[in-house]
Amino acid sequence: MKNMKFRRRGWYKHKRIGMGKKRKVGWRKPKGRDNKMREKRKGRPPVVSIGYKKAKTKQKVVMIYNIKDIEGMEKGNIAILGKVGKRKKMEIAKKAQEKNIGFQNLNIKKFLKKNESK
After folding, report:
1. pLDDT tens-digit map of 56-102
2. Contacts of 109 (CB under 8 A, 6+ apart)
3. d(Cα 90, Cα 87) in Å, to the nearest integer?
4. N or C: at which end does the chain have fewer Cβ atoms within 10 angstroms?
5. Can you give the pTM of this predicted structure?
């Protein structure tokens, strides 16, 4: 299913809850006796429901605590850096940069640039 953007009812009508106000554009459940959106009528914006759930990815998540874990990683897996100290994290980041592996919870370039000088 494509990525849906669920908006609150009438977001396009009112300036105070319009596109410029990202916080207020967000989803609110439509309530009200005569609400066409609540009734899920044809031509109205979509209402949040179970059928819109995204398919789960078939990628395997790998927790990395040391350099051996990186060497055993397969292509296409998601890498998450575990709870390690700064020195070991530097070694892991350098090795990952060589093997062209990205982490979900670590920006390698930014981390190495910040800590190389120290």
Report:
1. 777 788 999 999 999 888 877 889 999 999 999 999 999 999 988 88
2. 97
3. 5
4. C
5. 0.53
